[in-house]
Amino acid sequence: xxxxxxxxxxxxxxxxxxxxxxxxxxxxxxxxxxxxxxxxxxxxxxxxxxxxxxxxxxxxxxxxxxxxxxxxxxxxxxxxxxxxxxxxxxxx
Length: 92
Prior knowledge:
This protein has helices at 18-34, 37-54, 77-83; strands spanning 2-5, 9-12, 56-57, 68-70. The protein has 92 residues and is an alpha+beta fold. The protein has one domain. Strands 3-2-1-4 form a four-stranded mixed sheet, with helices on one face. A hairpin with a 3-residue loop joins strand 1 and strand 2 (9-12). Helix 1 runs antiparallel to helix 2. The longest helix is centred in the middle third of the chain and has 18 residues, at 37-54. It is globular, with a radius of gyration of 13 Å. The two termini are 14 Å apart. The mean pLDDT is 95.
């Protein structure tokens, strides 16, 4: 699975990490709905960190389509309301 972190590049991530990322994503959806800024920031950092640690960076010269696009770490809670809703960014 190819995941793009906006402003940082793409990562090739083993599909075995999907469940973990989906759980974090679902938690973010709940935090955004509650308006919990601090928890949202921690969870978004956890999501991005997991992708960076577990994934393999795709060379910037390669053109590959992303399966999932993750917003940047500096996303505001207000912006997140438009992104993290329903099932979130990881559907499943």
